[in-house]
From TrEMBL:
Keyword Transmembrane helix: yes
UniProt protein name: MMPL family transporter
Gene3D superfamilies named among the record's database cross-references: Multidrug efflux transporter AcrB transmembrane domain
Entry keywords, A to Z: Cell membrane, Membrane, Transmembrane, Transmembrane helix
Ranges that cross the membrane: 172-192, 199-217, 223-242, 263-292, 298-322, 355-374, 510-529, 536-557, 577-598, 619-642, 654-678
Organism: Actinoallomurus oryzae
Topology of this chain in the membrane: Multi-pass membrane protein
Length: 720
């Protein structure tokens, strides 16, 4: 691999104009396609094969009028007064006048007035799906709450009240921090700017390609943001690693094109491996069997793949244009002092290897303690109760809970499907009787029938909120109870039921996916490092990272510890797909740091250094670059925490925490401590396995043995 990438890097360096032109043309073409074909993303979470999704599909077929987006307007009279039809009628008319609305139910006729007469719910039905609702429609709908209503309080809730977007411009924070870190790391404005520009071009190409497909591929709202978040982080990191290696080769006296070839052949090999692990882990989300999760994984994997290609081809071309200006000014001026301080990484490496046993003990115990909240972790889809307190959704949620109880925010729907009208009616009556006897059910509305009278729906109001643990018990109790209905099929659905089904399916898939990822890491690292114990150590370190990250995220977002510092309005269950997404992403990022640090350890050990010195060298040579890369990644991910969207906020927080733990605690502290304890045993591999495993040559050993490729033509560059 190293030889192939060496030739690729050298060719791109020498043909820099053509390479840059190809990428710019590709960016322009994909950008134009994105503008022309960009389609809407969806906030819907589908779960094929579950009872709730089957019932939801039946509703859309038998009750097409109910298939569009919905909203709920909550009206409240002043204290100690009651609403009148005359007061509410103008609000109903105003709701009907919103563009795209096909119906708004009078609460007095729909019997959606609270027992004390002070509160009322107006159900609003739109013709289009939530993805089709325009900004103008959302604004017109939410403006209803801001009108003069004669002293009444009016709040607009439901899907339509949710603010669009949620991640715009947050990536700017990460880019600014990345620029500062790169400038400090390289001590060269040209090197920092070139590295950042290269990564941004890769992200732009990846995102343009992704948006150009949204008209034919359905993506969840979180998919583009996750792809942007990850593509930006790894794009900067990959460019940073290769540029750092190129500069080192230049300082060692290599010719520019030879240094570029060697950098792509060595650091580029590690980038290919690290990128491949991220892509495989993200693409592996497809095996879970959840379409929206598979789409999220594939979208993010695509941007990572583009980041790898850009780093391997565009970066050496940009390095050629930069010339000697990529080096620090003092090196270009020949002012390299002989008394330069020893790198901090070497000093830290000596401390860790000397105190290896105490450090291992403290580190493992500390990470284990941070993981303890995981035992209480709960998963669910987000609801309006976790939205920002000043948002329209949250205000409507709180007012509904105040007037009707939390259960009205998590209404369930029982869909009764029979062979004929008589069987359906009998089954609906039997189901209503059974439902009224279920503990946790507050009320059951009268049955509504489709035109053929073969399908009925029963609105079920639980006593608890949509994300309460008791509601999950109520859903299971309802399903057990209605299984006794004869003559028709009864299925429970609704947003709350769909969320519970998704959470349970993901919880069942999580151990399998974790085993797949850990098994993959052991196999891939065995190929890279030709060792048994190093891959096992890496996998255990990954598990420590994941456990501690889950624990901290649970403590903040679910239990509410320090929640105000990260802008969590109301603590609640974690997003149901957060753990599996986090595992997929952190796995790849953890392998980035593992490869860059441990590959240097192996390289020096193979060339004759003692195990302890090789460990110190591996940390000493790479600590600065890994630190810079980790800070950049943490900044990019943390920048997404300012969005009000609880999904993006929790993903950004968890990834930032996970990268911090994995880079600074696990890879740069526990890993060298373990390597120092293992000594030569770390590199043990049975001879039969050594013969079977292919030699990937990540360290570029073959490049050391092979003479440099002769110059094709005299090469000149500017030293300005």
């Amino acid at each position: 691999m190293a030889s192939l990438l060496y030739r690729l890097g050298r060719a791109c360096f020498r043909r820099r104009g053509r390479v840059v032109a190809v990428w710019l043309i590709l960016l322009a073409a994909l950008g134009g396609a994105a503008v022309a074909f960009k389609g809407p993303t969806s906030g819907e979470f589908r779960m094929p094969g579950t009872e709730s999704q089957r019932a939801m599909d039946a509703l859309k077929k038998e009750f097409p009028a109910a298939g569009g987006a919905t909203g709920t307007i909550v009206v409240a009279a002043p204290a100690n007064t009651k609403l009148t039809e005359a007061q509410v009628a103008p609000i109903v008319r105003q709701a009907k006048a919103v563009p795209g609305v096909v119906g708004a139910a009078d609460p007095f006729r729909a019997r959606s007035v609270s027992p004390d007469g002070r509160y009322a719910l107006i159900q609003v039905q739109f013709a289009g799906q939530i993805a089709d609702i325009t900004g103008a429609q959302r604004t017109a709908y939410k403006d209803i709450a801001h009108g003069a209503h004669g002293g009444l309080r009016v709040e607009t809730g439901g899907d339509v009240a949710k603010d669009g977007g949620g991640g715009e411009a947050t990536e700017g924070i990460g880019v600014v921090v990345a620029a500062v870190v790169l400038l400090i790391t390289f001590a060269s404005l040209v090197a920092a700017g070139m590295t950042l520009l290269n990564a941004l071009i890769g992200v732009a190409v990846g995102m343009a390609g992704l948006y150009s497909l949204t008209s034919v591929v359905e993506l969840n709202d979180a998919s583009p943001v996750l792809a942007l978040m990850l593509g930006l982080a790894v794009g900067i990191d990959y460019s940073l690693f290769i540029t750092s290696r190129y500069r080192q080769y230049r300082l060692d006296g290599m010719e520019p094109d030879e240094a570029a070839g060697r950098a792509i052949g060595t650091a580029g090999s590690a980038v290919v491996f690290a990128g491949a692990t991220v892509v495989i882990a993200l693409a592996g989300l497809s095996v879970v069997g959840i379409p929206f999760l598979a789409a999220m994984g594939l979208a993010a994997a695509a941007t990572v793949a583009v980041a790898v290609l850009v780093a391997l081809t565009l970066l050496p071309a940009v390095l050629a244009f930069a010339g000697a200006r990529v080096l620090p000014r003092r090196h270009r001026a020949g002012r390299v002092g002989v008394h330069e301080k020893e790198k901090l990484g070497y000093r830290w490496g000596r401390v860790v290897t000397r105190l290896r046993l105490p450090i291992l003990l403290v580190g493992v115990v500390a990470l284990g303690a941070l993981a303890l909240p995981v035992t209480h972790m709960r998963l669910a889809l987000p609801d309006a109760g976790t939205a920002a307190k000043d948002s329209a959704q949250r205000k409507a949620y709180d007012l509904t809970s105040e007037g009707f109880g939390k259960g009205y925010n998590g209404r369930l729907v029982a869909v009764v499907s029979g062979h004929d009208a008589t069987a359906t009616r009998a089954a609906a009556q039997q189901a209503a009787t059974l439902l009224n006897g279920v503990h946790g059910v507050r009320a059951v509305a009268p049955a509504q029938y489709n035109g053929a009278k073969t399908t009925a729906l029963l609105a079920v109001i639980p006593t608890t909120g949509p994300s309460d643990a008791a509601t999950e018990d109520t859903v299971h109790a309802i399903r057990d109870k209605v299984s006794a209905v004869r003559g028709a099929d009864v299925a429970l659905t609704g947003t709350t039921a769909v969320g519970i089904d998704i959470s349970e399916k993901l919880a069942h898939a999580l151990p399998i996916y974790l085993l797949l990822v850990v098994g993959l890491s052991v196999l891939l690292l065995m190929l890279v490092f030709r060792s048994i114990l190093v891959p096992i150590k890496a996998a255990v370190g990954f598990l420590l990272t994941v456990g501690a990250t889950f624990g901290i995220t649970t403590a903040v977002f679910q239990q509410g510890h320090l929640a105000g510092l990260v802008g969590v309005a109301t603590p609640g269950p974690l997003i149901s797909f957060l753990p599996i997404i986090l595992i997929g992403i952190l796995f790849g990022l953890a392998m980035d740091y593992e490869v860059f640090i441990v590959s240097k350890m192996r390289e020096d050990f193979v060339h004759g250094d003692k195990p302890r010195q090789a460990t110190i060298n591996g940390l000493g040579e790479n600590a600065r670059v890994v630190t810079a890369a980790a800070i950049i990644m943490i900044s990019v991910f943390a920048g997404f925490m300012i969005t009000p969207d609880p999904i993006i906020k929790s993903i950004g927080f968890a990834l930032a925490v996970g990268v911090f733990i994995d880079a600074f605690v696990v890879r740069m502290t526990l890993v060298p401590a373990v390597m120092a304890v293992l000594g030569r045993a770390a590199w043990w591999l049975p001879r039969w396995l050594d013969r079977v495993l292919p030699d990937l040559d990540i360290e570029g050993e073959k490049l050391r043995r092979e003479p440099a490729v002769p110059q094709e033509a005299p090469y000149t560059y500017s030293v300005r």
